[in-house]
Amino acid sequence: MKMQAATISSAIVAQPVRGAFGPQRIAETMHLPAARSSGLAAWQLRRATAYLEQHACEAVRVADLAAMVGLSISHFARAFKASTGLPPHLWQTQRRIRTAQQMMIAGEQPLVEIALATGFSDQSHFTRVFRARTGTTPGAWQRHVRSMSAAA
């Protein structure tokens, strides 16, 4: 009975200690990224995202990205999402939207030209995707940003 009580009490005491000093907590305390065994290696992520950046306005096939880093298509897609939080297609869409936002801030091109320049098939497609990702239309977003910069 004393043996069971000692085992139970040490398990109760050890549990918070394991949580407080486990690998995840140590990484957080030291401001290190937590290990992601299911994600891409750093070089693979750099290579894939650099390629997506360079070809942001083009259709990029997941098969090409996977081959570039030496993985199967399904493994690459899972690992990319584990590393970035987004599948490759949505990551590229987010990049296109950021580029479009930068172009809208510059304010020198009409929205239809921005849509085509950032890889969308037309302004309607651009508006649908932009609204789905940001919650507002490109025109409304541009007016809001301009009014904020005029007020500043």
What is the rounded Rg? 23 Å
The total of beta strands comes to 0
* N-to-C SSE string, H for helix and E for strand: HHHHHHHHH
Count of domain modules:
3
Write the layout of secondary structure elements.
Elements: H1 2-21, H2 23-29, H3 42-54, H4 62-69, H5 73-84, H6 88-106, H7 111-117, H8 123-134, H9 138-151
Helix pairs in contact: 3-4, 4-5, 7-8
What this model shows, in words?
By secondary structure, the chain is an all-alpha fold. The chain folds into three domains: 1-35; 42-85; 91-146, Homeodomain-like (Arc Repressor Mutant, subunit A). The protein is built from nine helices and no strands. The chain has helices spanning 2-21, 23-29, 42-54, 62-69, 73-84, 88-106, 111-117, 123-134, 138-151. Helix 3 packs antiparallel against helix 4, helix 4 crosses helix 5 and helix 7 (111-117) crosses helix 8 (123-134). The radius of gyration is 23 Å and the shape is elongated. Residues 5-23 and 29-36 have low confidence and may be disordered.
Please describe the structure with a list of short key phrases separated by commas or semicolons.
152 residues; mainly alpha; 9 helices; 3 domains; Arc Repressor Mutant, subunit A
